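User: For documentation purposes, I need each entry recorded in a consistent format: the amino acid sequence on its own, followed directly by the corresponding structure tokens. There are two entries in this batch. Please keep commentary to a minimum and don't merge the entries.

Assistant: Recorded as requested. Entry 1:
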Amino acid sequence: MYGSGNTHMNEWLYLSIFTIYSINSVIEDVLSFRVRLHEIALGIAVVLAVRAIMGDGGWMEALASGAIGALVFLVVEKASKGRLGAGDIWFSAFIGVSFGFWTWDLGLLAAAALAAAWVCALSLSGRRGALRQIRIPFVPFMFAGAIAVALYRGLSR
């Protein structure tokens, strides 16, 4: 997390804000492979505003972490020829703004591992030929990875 004055309570506050603004996006991505970008943008704005109001510093660092998260996913989206959507890019930025680069980084690794396990389970279930046609909602995996890393970091202090 950011800022020298950042308390343990503030970290739980940011985790709560992230969770509240993410739940609908997770459900929507699973059901329709879409997320409402304005909800994610509002979540980003709320986290940045709370960081500024709390005075724990780091809102500019949070903004930079969110920008890095979005840019990395934008590059991946271009390289994968559109397999990632705008919701994935914005959600990546939301993780960066909420938790910082290191949680974003480790959370992404956890998300990739969860998604890979899900794909392996599908292939073992006999749907191997259909795997090329299956669309994977990535926001739920990113959410789970970010929450797991944030909780691990918060509880290990």
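Entry 2:
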Amino acid sequence: MSDNCIFCGAPATQPITLKETFTAQPLLQPGNKACNRCTTYYNDPKYRRKNWYSTNGQDFNQIKDVLQFLQDMPPPPFVLYTTINWKKHGWILSVQNTILNHDKFILICDDQKIYFNRTFFNKLLTDLEPIWQKGVIKKFLTVGYPPAGIIRKYALTREECQLLESYKQHPLWHFIIAFKKRDKQQEESENKDE
């Protein structure tokens, strides 16, 4: 058996026993030991249920606004985990993909790896803003070219519709839409429209 952490691969001394209900075995490396950091992450559910980053492996910094955080990150290296489902073991992928560069890295959301390119991220945010200001509900922002009724309802231009079509399969676009926040009044209106 290896003396490396089954989660992140760092040197480890603590034996660890996984719960029978643990479903993320395919993410693990062979062995039966874990480092102190990963033992803490494994045993504390907040590391699965919150958006967070850690600069030294011991601190837990919760992220309230993920998109804002990605625009103003701390200096690398750090571990970053984002979640939409609040229950995945994606933190394992996060410790295996430490962020070493602000501009290009692997962004982990739940158990999905998304290639993050800052230039493209900023372009997506810029392209989204005029459509977002029109109040288009989230479900129509990720399905491609919208139906005619939606185009009329939100006065979408042909260019905006083509933009939605071109981004519909891009994981970073879906990530941005998932984490984009509306003010309370817009959110209530969106919930009524659904």
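Summary note for entry 2:
The first strand starts at residue 14 and ends at 15.
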